[in-house]
Amino acid sequence: MQKIQVIGVHHITLMGADRQTSIDFWEGLLGMPFIFDQPNLDDPDEGHLYFDPGDGRLITIFTNENRNPVHNRTPTDAGCVHHVAFEVDRAMFDQVQDRLKERGIGNSGVKDRGFMHSIYFKDPLGFLIELACYTFIPPRGSSHAEVMLEAHKLRVARGDHHIERQHLADATVMIVKRSQRSLSEDRSAKNPYR
């Protein structure tokens, strides 16, 4: 038996309301360019809109002119999607609450998750959207996932409840030491002000 190895998210497809509400939300609020439009090839009563979230992957939306926006929370039963998170940079993250407020969109306020900050709000159909901003930058040639893996190991070894900034900072030091060579034989912390 062998694995089927995935190499990334290809696209995520969500059920939308009507075409214009979907375009207004995904492009008009979240800024994702509307890049492709065709019928849903499995249901002739639906459209299939494609949006670019900025990382070269796709968010696609099935639309139907008979589906109106409803503002109830979508189901969170086992097997249901709880939410989708999109990355924003720090400068944008600091503007999110004001930009939602000017549209009258309620939100969770800023949630500090240790390794990221999050703001949650619902789309026009009640689906939970998260806008997230990492609290750290991975070393060059590394990834957020690599730093989080090392931070997790440190957190567990130290008996801490959840990832905090210290775990991330120490993980970054470890990754740099492991991946970047030096002429020094002793790369331990020093105090040049002694």
TrEMBL record:
Recorded superkingdom: Bacteria
Residue ranges annotated as transmembrane are none
* Coiled-coil annotated residue ranges, if any: none
Record-linked Pfam families:
Glyoxalase
Pinpoint the VOC domain residues: 8-134
Q: Which PANTHER family does UniProt cross-reference here?
A: RING-CLEAVING DIOXYGENASE MHQA-RELATED, RING-CLEAVING DIOXYGENASE MHQE-RELATED
Q: What is this protein called?
A: Catechol 2,3-dioxygenase
